[in-house]
Known about the structure:
Layout: H1 21-37, E1 42-43, E2 49-51, H2 52-55, E3 68-71, E4 78-81, H3 86-94, E5 104-113, E6 125-134, H4 139-155, E7 161-166, H5 170-177, H6 182-193, H7 197-202, H8 204-220, E8 223-224, H9 225-234, H10 239-258, E9 263-266, E10 277-286, E11 294-302, E12 308-317, H11 318-323, E13 333-336, H12 342-350, E14 354-357, H13 365-371, E15 376-379, E16 382-385
Parallel strand pairs: 1-5, 7-9, 13-14, 13-15
Antiparallel strand pairs: 2-4, 3-4, 5-6, 6-12, 7-10, 8-9, 10-11, 11-12, 15-16
Helix pairs in contact: 1-4, 4-10, 5-10
Amino acid sequence: MNEPVNKALLPAGMSDALPPDAAFEADTLDDLLLSFAGHGYQQVKPPLIEFEEGLLAGVGTAVSAQTFRLMDPISQRMMGVRADMTPQVARIAASRLKKAPRPLRLSYAGQVLRIKGSQLRPERQFSQVGAELIGVTEPAADAEVIVMAANALTKIGVSNLSIDLGIPTLVPAICRELDISEEVEGKLRLALDRKDAAEVAALANDLGADGCKILSALLAAAGPAHKTIDVLNALDLGDHAAQERHALIEVISLIEAADSDLTLTVDPVENRGFEYHSGVTFTFFVRGVRGELGTGGRYVANTGNGHEEPSTGFTLFMDTVLRALPEYIPQARIFMPWGTGREAAEKLRAEGWAAVSGLVAVENDEAEAKRLLCTHLFTENGIVEL
Length: 386
């Protein structure tokens, strides 16, 4: 015998946002976008679904494995549901805003859908909000988006924020200068991702004495920014790797000049999640909060049609951001008994109240106000707190 279907059951990684959580997210999104707008970032709104060949081209290939696909019944072409909004912003910049002056500052917010969640983020559908600075190579651009995001998070109430910076192009540059084979580089990359110093040391014959010393030092250098910089400056690197090191140090210097109170750490071998990035990367964390609040970094905005632009930007994950904020205080609700003049309710709404009008006369207005989860009651003698 078939069990009855529970129609309220949702797929794994999906959830309903109920009051007051839905309002909490909406208010926080608005505050973040307003903060970005104050820096000149103009909002764009790409569609939830696009044709597969456009959505997954260029930087979009990085999220191909996480993208839901479906057939468009009208055009009979394959479409994808966005798993990340950055590729869409890159497409807009390269097409609809191709002739707009550079640097181009764009912000965005919306829902994304992924095939599966991760251990730190089991949610498969969640809101993203972020910003992209397109068409500029200067380190000042990287510093601008990092400081802007950090200050916006602090402004909405996030405390104990730390920023972990990386340079995922550094290790590949060292490997090229040491003439390390792709096979050995793959083993090295796996060992570094696992933070396995013993495995790095086991590759000494392939890396050479100097290479093993440099890469082991990089692995051990993760920590507070100035400690890591001291280690990096002491390494004898080739020209290309030295340029990558200089780029990271310059961005850190600009961040500290803009906001010396920010907590900065560096992991010079971190690569996971930054596969398509071409320069300095960063992740926002809060102590005691599961998952990262957001990630970002420098990349080449490539839409797959030959158009490329140097870019940097970030994405904040609203589910984690909300967990890092103080308890939400919903809008005060006041019950307006049946027969109360419309003018009184409109006046209270203009003052910031949620004025809930009674639709029928009841015997006990106070009991009705409490039943409707109101915090106050409007009476002839004034407002009564319940």
